[in-house]
Specification:
This protein has helices spanning about 15-20, 45-50, 65-75, 90-95; strands at about 5, 25-30, 35, 55. The strands form two sheets. Strands 1-4 form a two-stranded antiparallel sheet. The protein is α+β, with helices and mostly antiparallel strands and about 110 residues long. The relative contact order is 0.31. It is built from four helices and four strands; from the N terminus they run βαββαβαα. It has a single domain, classed as Alpha-Beta Plaits (2-Layer Sandwich).
């Protein structure tokens, strides 16, 4: 099983999760993070660190977020690895509770 970053991360992109990842499985896009399912060791450390509550075990991804399982795997192949925490976007807190923002994902 792997962990999956879901819609809540879009336009928030808090990177607290990156700091605790022991295997550097996070990849960074313009306004979203993904987890490489090939690198994730299922340690669960990132889940508690995510202010957006965007990270789920693959088996626990909500039904309306299932497309993010494939999306994480796809984007992890092309986006660069991120290994250090960065400041979130200036408007991250404003986007934190916004729903239905898949159309805002920048590739």
């Amino acid at each position: 099983m792997t962990y999956v970053v879901t819609e809540s991360c879009i336009k928030c992109k808090y990177t607290d999760c990156v700091d605790v990842c022991p295997v550097d499985c996070f990849h960074e896009g313009p306004n979203f993070l993904v987890i490489d399912p090939e690198e994730c060791i299922d340690c669960t450390l990132c889940v508690a660190e995510c202010p957006a509550e965007a990270i789920y075990a693959e088996d626990d991804v909500p039904a309306n977020q299932q497309q993010f399982v494939a999306l994480n795997a796809e984007l992890a192949k092309t986006w660069p690895v991120i290994i250090e925490r960065k400041e979130p976007p200036a408007d991250a807190d404003e986007w934190l509770k916004v729903k239905d923002k898949l159309d805002k994902l920048e590739r």
